[in-house]
Structures are given as C-alpha cells and as structure tokens.
Amino acid sequence: MRALVDRHDAVTREATFNERLIAFARYWGFRRRACAPYRARTKGKDERGVAPESRIIVRGWSALEAHLDWWMREVGDQRIHGTTAEAPIERFAPDE
C-alpha cells in the first residue's frame, strides 16, 4: 500500500516503510512485510474471510450492524479456528 511504503526498490525488492507504520507495528507487536504487487499468494489468507460477507446487500448502517452482530455471535465465534483448534468464544472467554 502506497500510504505505508515510502520507497520501494524494484531491483533489490527492499521497502522503506512509513515511520508511523513502524511505530504502529512496534506498539502492536507485528512484523511488517511488503508483498509483491499483483501477487495474491504473498498476501496470506487474512483477506479471504471478508469475501462472503462483502456480497451481502445491506440497507443502511443499522441493518449492517445487526447482520454483523448476528454473524459474530452465530458463525464467527462458534467455528473452530484452523490454527488454534478452538472456537474464539471459548478461547477468549473471561477467566473465572
């Protein structure tokens, strides 16, 4: 994304990231990585989870919020995660 990369050298494939992105990544503890443009394989699978829900036609913000509340409660929090093998509702349940 252009807003996050200040410079990119196509020959060496090195990217210089925006200072605000560097600070944000340091704060949240994730590693920055510039992906090759137009190469879906390098982007990972995070973006794929949005596709089915993006096809829903919504009439207004309240309908969207209601749908998202339902989806998180009935679908997203209930399914077994591929990496942790746990449902998010169980994994993030408050300790008693």
Summarize the structure.
By secondary structure, the chain is an alpha+beta fold. The chain has four helices and two strands; from the N terminus they run E-E-H-H-H-H.
The tally of beta strands, per DSSP, is: 2
Estimated helix fraction: 25-40%
Shape: elongated
- Whole-number count of domains: 2
Secondary structure tally, helices: 4
Give the strand order, joined by hyphens, for the main sheet: 1-2
Unreliable stretches covering 5 or more consecutive residues:
none
Distance between the termini: 42 Å
Strand percentage lies at 5-15%
Order of helices and strands: EEHHHH
Q: Structural class per helix/strand content?
A: alpha+beta
What's the main sheet like?
A: 2 strands, antiparallel
Mean pLDDT: 79
**What Rg is obtained from the alpha carbons, in whole angstroms?**
18 Å
Notes on the protein architecture:
The chain has 96 residues and is an alpha+beta fold. The chain folds into 2 domains: 5-43, no CATH class; 46-91, no CATH class. The protein has helices spanning 19-28, 51-54, 61-76, 88-91, and strands at 5-9, 14-17. It has a two-stranded antiparallel sheet with strand order 1-2. It is elongated and about 50 Å long.
List the helices and strands and how they pair.
Layout: E1 5-9, E2 14-17, H1 19-28, H2 51-54, H3 61-76, H4 88-91
Antiparallel strand pairs: 1-2
